[in-house]
Structure formats: C-alpha cells, structure tokens
Amino acid sequence: MTNMRFRAPRRTTRRALLAVSALALVAPLTACGGGSDTAAGDGKTLRLWHYEQEDGALSNAWDAAIAEFKKTHPDVKVVFERKTFEQIQQNAGMILNSDKAPDVMEYNKGNATTGLLAKQGLLTDLTSVAKERGWDKKISESASVTARYDANGEMGGAKWYGIPNYGEFVLSYYNDDLFKKYNVAKPTDFKSFEAALAKFKAAGVTPLANAANDHPAGHWLYLLALSQADDTWVDNYQLYKGKVDFHGPEMTYAVNKYKEWLDKGYFEKKDVGLKGSDMTEQFVSQKRPIMVGGNWWFGGLTTDIKNFEWSTAPYPGSEKTLGSGGNHWVVPTKAKNKKLAEDFIDITMSDKIQKRIGEEGNVPLAAKADSITNPKARELINAFNTHQSSNGLAFYPDWPVAGYYDTWMAATQNLMNGSKPDKVLDELAAPYEKYAASRH
C-alpha cells in the first residue's frame, strides 16, 4: 500500500504531495545537454523524464546510464528533465496525448496508471522489443506482472508496456545489538519470530516498530494474510481471477493475529497516529528492535544509523511478501525517437548499470547479489531474490481498487482503536466487492 501504486505510492509514495499545473510539467526543470529540443524526430535527440530524487540510488544510476548513452551515441543530444512524481502522475495523460511527449519516461505501475494509459493507446507496445533485446529473460515472471497489461488495462496481460529495472519488497530489519543485549535469537521461522517478540516484551521492550497513519500497519495486516495464502488467493485478490472471501481463513487470520499482537503489547496502541517516518525513527533510536517494512527505507537507514549494528532478512513468517517490480520506463506512442528510447532502456538493463543500482542500495532485477561489493546491499538483494525466485512477490493490498489505500489505512486504524475484527473485514470488503461487481 503505497501512495497509490494504484496507489499513489509510497516510495515515490513517500513524496510529499505537490499540486502542479500541466504547464509546469511541460516546462524543463533540469536539462542534460542543454538547448531546446528542435531536432526531435531526426534520431539526434533523446528526451528523457524521470522523477527520482537527486542523489538518490536510482537517480545516480540513471545519471550513469545517461553518461553511458552519450558514450555510445556521441552524435545524440540528451535532454533530461527531472519531474516530481506528482507532476507526472497528475498530468501524464494530457501530456502524452500531445506533441510534448518525451521519448522515454519513468512512470508508475498499476492498472490506474500504466494500465490506463496503455488502454487509451498512449503507450508503445514494447513486447517485441523486450523479446528481441532479452529484457523478458532478465526480469522474472513475478517482477514483470506489473509491466504487462491486457486490452482492459489490467496488469498480468501478455503485452509489455513498461520495463522495470529494480524491485521493491517488504522485509525484516533487525537491531543486532539489541538482540545480543537481551539474548534473543534471530528468527528463522514464524515460531521463533513470535518467541523473539515475547522475549523482548518480557524484558520490557516493545519489539515491533509500527505506524498506522500511513502504509506500514496496512502492510503488516496484508503480510499476515499472505502468510496463510497461496498463489490462487493472490491471483484472485489482485487480478480478479476468482471470488475473494474477506471472511475466509486468510483475512480472518490476519485481523485476529494483528489484534492478538496489539493486546500483547508487541506494538503500541499509540502507533495508530504515527507516520512511516515515525516508525523508522522508532528503529533508528533503538526503541524498537524489529521493523518489518519496505526496502525503500534501506538507504535512509544506512545513512542514519551510526551507533549500532543492524541487518536485514526475509520476513520469516511468510513465503510471500508485499512487493513487485519497481516503477518502469515507458515509451509514449507519440515519442519521436523510439529507437533511441529503446537503446537507453537497454543500457539501464546492462550489467554495469544493474550493478550500480545494487551498489547504491537498491534492488536490481538483473544483477546477481555476489557481484555487489556492499555487504548490506547483498543481504538486501538476497532477501529479494528469495521471494522473486519462488513467485513470492504478492503486490500491495490497495492495488486492486482505485482509492483503496485510504480504505486500508482507515480499517487498520479502526482495528487498533478497538473495532471488532469482523467489522474491519466488512470495511475492507465493501469497496472491493463493489468494484469487482462492476467489472461484469
């Protein structure tokens, strides 16, 4: 559940909302290569947009990809414009349906974003290119679901409309020093995970970082449901391949286990009003020894944690976790230099740039963990690969329905504030079932 990945997510979803006009989206913000794009369409100019924050892991990787592109295309001018996530999210349809469309652009995955534009005919079908250049072999089946859409604009179809370069997922973060201080064994399965929670609590330490006025608490609730789910349930929930019973064993287990942990004090009721950044502060300040959250927190923790040892690992209570391929490159239908756009995407999938993504602390889709020199980054990539190799990326709970993010957040807060589990399940079911019925 990430701003909306159908979301208006998170990571990108963690960016502050900013109201902008379509005019602001058209105006260049930052350019590499300089000058106006007067040569667009002649194979001599590549216009590129992305919204990664300057000096972030992905921004640095894309800077390296642009530099590599210039080496291999010395006669091509690169006009790069850094946008905000919200600029592209709010105005993409209007801009891509005009002569101002860039040649290649980072865009948000999901039915309400890439799927919608693909259905409207605004994005280039990259299926044949993905096969010719081998991108489809470098990206796993589970990581490519959000890059592929059907004629209705729903993910998981046969046609590629985006090419992701990185992955994202939810995993465990452990304060190794606190585990040693309280003589708590690192969890290896769900039984030992709950044993660790109980031992910390007995020692007077609230074990779990959490926040319910943002995505984390909803992520926890869905992760608990996934621990009881199989591939069929995930496909039914995310892709509408079958009926979902919100009072079935998966979601019933989730709300009951969540309430049990709340009652036992494994996280605190006051966490109901906290934001995601408050959750990470609980971990960084050593008030909570365990945080289960997205890899998008990894870079900030690497910078902020100075006084204790910490590690990452797959959450041991479930073979499936929240996650997917990351946001991806798309080529607008009205792009003037599509071949150059394909060449740039190919560079971002190269061993050199994929390794750069990993060294910068993100999760490359096409680099092996043992090629990464940063040991913490290797831990992170290995954890992702554990899920990716077993079809264990189960997307996010708010993806199936536009606007569902707010429903999940409110329902989780209500659970923490004392609502009965069955009532919470009814809250989650109502908008989902309404939308599911409207599809037929």
TrEMBL record:
Organism domain of life: Bacteria
Pfam families assigned: SBP_bac_1
Stored SUPFAM superfamilies: Periplasmic binding protein-like II (SSF53850)
Matching Gene3D superfamilies: Periplasmic binding protein-like II
InterPro entries (UniProt xref): Bact_solute-bd_prot1 (IPR050490), SBP (IPR006059), TAT_signal (IPR006311)
Alphabetized UniProt keyword annotations: Signal
Protein name: Extracellular solute-binding protein
